């Protein structure tokens, strides 16, 4: 008895009619996710349920009017009937959103934030660079490379003018 | 029916079906090694009969429409006509408009199919009092 009362309360949604009462525990609660759902898809034009389940008085009277001649309905009424049954029209379904702007913005923001972390890291986490990066050391390194004529054909030494002791113009 | 078919048998290129322009009705030849091939007329007749059932219920209408839209074709005018009449029997104007939107969407880039369909369906649309999505402004955003 409790079960049939529960069934009546649930209204239009399609439910299995065979309800059993087991072991005196009553009927299991019907979860929303187990019932047919509404979704707008191009490949599934007529979903299992109407979009609007609970009709207002105005909508209910419109549904009554739908039983008669459709020529008697105005365009607004036809659109209203459509909107009762469906959420989005095909045109609205295919419409793009502006979500990509949020996505790009979010990505750039996170990249920027990562840049800040990297800079902080360089300053506060890493120790000093090796002494071989000192300008004097680097100058001596370069001199040594030129002295041993490294890459003399097309590379480093080829660009050095050894008579005038400067880079070739 | 409007069917653009280009199919290569998975077991080798034994049989090729040439791709046809979408409006003409091609011969439906599939690579069955046995079994009858259903002709376009039989296909159409089957679906017209399905929607013509006098006591069709809402579930059957939805199931039929969703299945039909799943096929790689735009339904013939007579099938859509039969479906619209089924909507009338079920007092479901919204589904009738939805069906028109769906067949327009099925035509895809072939923009000439939908106006042709509407032209063929015009007597039915006037008789039943169904407005097209264009008349209701629903094809715009």
Automatic annotation (TrEMBL), chain A:
One of the Pfam families matching this protein, by short name: COX4
Spell out where the chain crosses the membrane.
102-120
Q: Gene3D superfamilies per the record?
A: Cytochrome c oxidase subunit IV (1.10.442.10)
| Protein function | Component of the cytochrome c oxidase, the last enzyme in the mitochondrial electron transport chain which drives oxidative phosphorylation.
Subcellular localization = Mitochondrion inner membrane
Q: What is the lineage of its organism?
A: Eukaryota, Metazoa, Chordata, Craniata, Vertebrata
Which keywords does the record carry? Membrane, Mitochondrion, Mitochondrion inner membrane, Transmembrane, Transmembrane helix
Q: What is this protein called?
A: Cytochrome c oxidase subunit 4
TrEMBL record, chain B:
* GO process annotations (BP): mitochondrial electron transport, cytochrome c to oxygen
- Where in or outside the cell? Mitochondrion inner membrane
Pathway(s) this gene product operates in, as recorded in its UniProt entry: Energy metabolism; oxidative phosphorylation
InterPro entries in the cross-refs: Cyt_c_oxidase_su5A/6 (IPR003204), Cyt_c_oxidase_su5A/6_sf (IPR036545)
Q: Which UniProt keywords are present, listed alphabetically?
A: Acetylation, Heme, Iron, Membrane, Metal-binding, Mitochondrion, Mitochondrion inner membrane, Phosphoprotein, Transit peptide, Ubl conjugation
Role summary: Component of the cytochrome c oxidase, the last enzyme in the mitochondrial electron transport chain which drives oxidative phosphorylation. The respiratory chain contains 3 multisubunit complexes succinate dehydrogenase (complex II, CII), ubiquinol-cytochrome c oxidoreductase (cytochrome b-c1 complex, complex III, CIII) and cytochrome c oxidase (complex IV, CIV), that cooperate to transfer electrons derived from NADH and succinate to molecular oxygen, creating an electrochemical gradient over the inner membrane that drives transmembrane transport and the ATP synthase.
Family, as annotated: Belongs to the cytochrome c oxidase subunit 5A family.
The name under which this protein is listed is Cytochrome c oxidase subunit 5A, mitochondrial
Native organism is Dissostichus eleginoides (Patagonian toothfish)
């Amino acid at each position: 008895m409790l079960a049939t009362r529960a069934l009546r309360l649930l209204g239009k949604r399609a439910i299995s009619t065979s309800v059993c009462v087991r072991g005196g525990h009553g009927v299991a609660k019907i979860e929303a996710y187990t019932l047919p759902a509404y979704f707008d898809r191009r490949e599934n034009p007529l979903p299992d349920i109407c979009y609007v389940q609970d009709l207002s008085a105005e909508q209910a009277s419109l549904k009554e009017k739908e039983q008669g001649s459709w020529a008697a309905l105005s365009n607004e009424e036809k659109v209203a009937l459509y909107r009762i049954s469906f959420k989005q029209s095909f045109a609205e379904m295919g419409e793009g959103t502006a979500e990509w702007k949020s996505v790009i913005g979010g990505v750039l923001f996170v990249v920027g934030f990562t840049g800040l972390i990297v800079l902080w890291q360089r300053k506060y986490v890493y120790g000093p660079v090796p002494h071989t990066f000192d300008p004097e050391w680097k100058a001596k390194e370069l001199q040594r490379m030129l002295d041993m004529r490294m890459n003399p054909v097309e590379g480093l030494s080829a660009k050095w003018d050894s008579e005038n002791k400067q880079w070739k113009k | 029916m409007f069917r653009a078919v280009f199919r290569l048998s998975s077991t080798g290129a034994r049989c090729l079906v040439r791709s046809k322009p979408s409006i003409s009705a091609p011969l439906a030849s599939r690579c069955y090694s046995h079994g009858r091939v259903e002709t376009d007329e039989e296909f159409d007749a089957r679906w017209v009969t399905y929607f013509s059932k006098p006591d069709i219920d809402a579930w059957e209408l939805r199931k039929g429409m969703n299945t039909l839209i799943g096929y790689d074709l735009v339904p013939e005018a007579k099938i859509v006509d039969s479906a619209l009449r089924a909507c009338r029997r079920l007092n479901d104007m919204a589904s009738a408009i939805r069906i028109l939107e769906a067949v327009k969407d099925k035509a895809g880039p072939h923009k000439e199919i939908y106006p042709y369909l509407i032209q063929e369906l015009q007597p039915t649309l006037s008789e039943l009092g169904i407005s097209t999505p264009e008349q209701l402004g629903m094809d715009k955003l």
